[in-house]
Specification:
By secondary structure, this protein is α/β, with parallel strands linked by helices. The radius of gyration is 21 Å and the shape is globular. α1 (24-40) runs parallel beside α10 (273-280). It folds into two domains: 10-162, Rossmann fold (3-Layer(aba) Sandwich); 190-327, Rossmann fold (3-Layer(aba) Sandwich). It has helices spanning 24-40, 56-59, 72-75, 83-95, 108-116, 150-162, 206-218, 230-242, 254-262, 273-280, 294-297, 317-327; strands at 15-19, 45-51, 64-70, 100-103, 120-124, 140-142, 190-194, 222-224, 266-270, 285-289, 305-309. The protein has a six-stranded parallel β-sheet, with helices on both faces. A five-stranded parallel β-sheet has the order 8-7-9-10-11, with helices on both faces. It has twelve helices and eleven strands.
Length: 330
């Protein structure tokens, strides 16, 4: 298949639209695409369509010119009452002059968004897309092997569409936002323990978190235990009660969480998007997996990121401490 996406040459491209809407981890896995494109085309203008809750993430990359939020999760609850908002987003995309749209999500919802832009639409081929029907909505389709990490699948798709071969380790291209250290976080070293995740079978036991927290306290590293829901806050408070000098912070925005993670001595987390964010920021990070295989969607950011565990194979505290020591000397 030709690398040329339309009549003019690839070198003439000046404006492209990336579509990767969710989830938090998936959005992070797409950031190296921006870095790769700008290495090949330094003058390229790149806009990005993303779910409104994650809009802060693409904005952390200096190469993203405009972040275009959508609210598919909210719209699905009431399509009728949201129709004006949906039409407005589509109208704005049609009005923009893009040379190419690249959908690395590979879902029907993202392919439908791509159709709103009046340009050549590129995406995964039938056997490569997460939802094969999405491929029917693209003008150009590319086969990318499924048995690879999501970061590499995204990078390869972009390279095929734009005519280059991604090289080297992925560069997420982001830095934590500059936010004043909050009053609840006193001076000194701290580690962030990401104990919360979307499914109960992905959790690590509270007894394990407490043992790890006490180890960190002995090393004069304070433990910070973020949360996002009432149930997670209750767990955070229980853990902070049992770990000396630990803190359960107030609810954090995504920007606040990025700043907190970026300043940490280390981050230890279960299978959750914030662990991927910590790794992308270059912070020593240990990912704990208990119900999923990290080979395809685990932490993927060089020697400072270590994955432990697998389906029905939770790591013990000693293994996590060993991985933490390894990550902190990278």
């Amino acid at each position: 298949m030709s690398f040329l996406p339309f009549k003019s040459t690839v070198q003439s491209l000046s404006n492209i639209l990336l579509i990767k809407t969710s989830s938090l981890g998936d959005v992070l896995h797409n950031l190296p695409v921006v870095t790769d494109i700008l290495k090949r085309f330094p003058a390229m203008r790149i806009d990005w369509v993303v779910e409104e809750n994650f809009a802060a993430l693409p904005a952390l990359h200096h190469g993203v010119q405009k972040v275009i939020p959508v609210a598919i999760r909210r719209w699905r609850k009431s399509w009728w009452s949201s129709r004006d908002e949906v039409h407005a987003v589509c109208h704005n995309l049609r009005a923009r002059q893009y040379d190419l749209t690249l959908d690395t999500q590979g879902l029907l919802k993202s392919a439908l968004i791509a159709r709103c832009a009046r340009t050549t639409r590129c995406g995964f081929a039938w056997n490569s897309a997460r939802e094969p029907l999405a491929s029917l909505l693209y003008n150009r389709r590319y086969a990318v092997a499924m048995n690879q990490h999501a970061v590499e699948r995204n990078r390869q798709l972009a390279g095929l569409a734009l005519g280059y071969k991604p090289e080297g380790a992925p560069d997420y291209g982001i830095r934590p936002p500059a936010i004043v250290r909050p009053a609840w976080l006193t001076e000194g070293l701290y580690a962030v323990l990401l104990h919360a995740t979307s499914r109960a079978d992905k959790l690590w036991s509270e007894a394990n978190w407490i043992a790890l927290g006490r180890y960190l306290h002995e090393k004069n590293i304070r433990c910070v235990l973020p949360w996002g829901s009432e149930a997670e806050q209750a767990r955070s408070l229980r853990l902070a009660d049992a770990i000396p000098d630990a803190v359960s912070p107030p609810r954090l925005s995504l920007n606040d969480a990025a700043a907190l993670l970026g300043g940490a001595q280390a981050v230890i987390g279960v299978d959750t998007g914030l662990a991927h964010l910590a790794a992308a920021l270059g912070v020593p990070t240990v990912g704990i997996y208990t119900a999923t295989d990290p080979a395809l969607t685990g932490l993927y950011a060089g020697r400072c990121a270590v994955n432990l565990g697998n389906v029905n194979c939770a790591p013990d505290v000693a293994a996590v401490i060993g991985a933490l020591q390894q990550a902190m000397v990278c």
